[in-house]
Amino acid sequence: MKLQKLENYYLSSELVEQFDLVVVYSCLESRSANILNRLKDNEGKFFVIADQSNCSDNFANIDCENLQVFDAKRCLQAVQAILLNLDGAYKVAVDISCLPHAVMADILHLISTTESNFQIEVVVLYSLAKFTLPGSLVYANESIEPVHQYFAGWSSPETKPTSLVLGLGYEPNKAEGASEYFEPSDQWVFIPSSPIPAFLTEVHNNNSNLIKKTPQDRTIEYNVADPEVTYGQLALVISALAKKSNPVLLPFGPKIFFFLCLVQCLAHPEVGVWRVTGVEDRGSQDIVSSEHVIGVRCVFS
């Protein structure tokens, strides 16, 4: 299937749109239950991904009909079974607030490779967290690798040099270490401007050296709450880089930006989305949802 439309989506607090399927991820963060709470009156199915290692009590008091709990593998199998047997247009909502990057890539891969005569509409929702400081301990990057085989990209026949698009997060020194690993011929840096200003301040504090070294014409401050415009900004940068290099997208920061990078690969399969693995120091503090829910609607046919 091809992506036909990508636009901002606003989750109303009064009139909630109905979906055939809602996919959410349960973990120890109380934020993980926010979207399900907002959509609990939906008349379609609910798939909750709750691996044994991250089972949570956050969902225990949510009274939802048609709710099924799976581990990640079985949930993907259940989604695939639905997509293979469509008998009409289908609407899916996916909460990516706490969703692991690899599972997010798996879901997009399933949808984009489905062969169907019916339209599939995917609404991706991201519950922005209230501001908390990043972990106090700094760990080295353990490995840098493609997030998914389907989104790994490939080298051009001319063996072009590697370029890099970095999406900054507020973890200290993570992005700079990844940049040094690639030694890119060209590098663009995307800086997230959040509806919660404290995040932007911390992004600058923890990436100050990298930002200082990056020319201003290679730096883009994007609006986290406007995925449609951010998608266009990414598309322009990738199109320019692909003419003379092999672009790699390395998105730290908000998961909505990670999703937009994955979607770019549908139009540019030569582009890879990579991730850094390593130990994260979250501490014992809970991650609580703010009042901001950011959404993007993708229509496939």
Question: What features would you highlight for this structure?
Answer:
single chain, 301 residues, alpha/beta, Rossmann fold, 2 domains, seven-stranded mixed sheet, six-stranded mixed sheet, 13 strands, globular
Helix/strand order: EEHEEHEHEEEHEHHEHEHEE
Radius of gyration: 19 Å
| Record field, number of beta strands | 13
Estimated helix fraction: 25-40%
Named CATH architecture of the largest domain: 3-Layer(aba) Sandwich
Largest sheet: 7 strands, mixed
Distance between the termini: 5 Å
Structure, briefly:
This protein has 8 helices and 13 strands. The chain has 301 residues and is an alpha/beta fold.
What does this structure look like?
The chain has 301 residues and is of the alpha/beta class. The protein folds into two domains: 3-131 and 285-300, Rossmann fold (3-Layer(aba) Sandwich); 143-277, Rossmann fold (3-Layer(aba) Sandwich), CATH 3.40.50. The chain is built from eight helices and 13 strands. It has helices at residues 34-39, 72-84, 101-112, 174-182, 197-206, 208-213, 227-242, 255-267; strands at 3-9, 21-25, 45-49, 67-70, 90-95, 120-129, 143-146, 162-167, 186-193, 219-223, 246-251, 272-277, 289-300. The strands form two sheets. It has a seven-stranded mixed beta sheet. The chain has a six-stranded mixed beta sheet with strand order 7-12-11-8-9-10, with helices on both faces. Helix 1 (34-39) links the parallel strand 2 and strand 3. Helix 2 packs parallel to helix 3, helix 3 (101-112) packs parallel to helix 8 (255-267) and helix 7 (227-242) packs across helix 8. It is globular. The termini are close together.
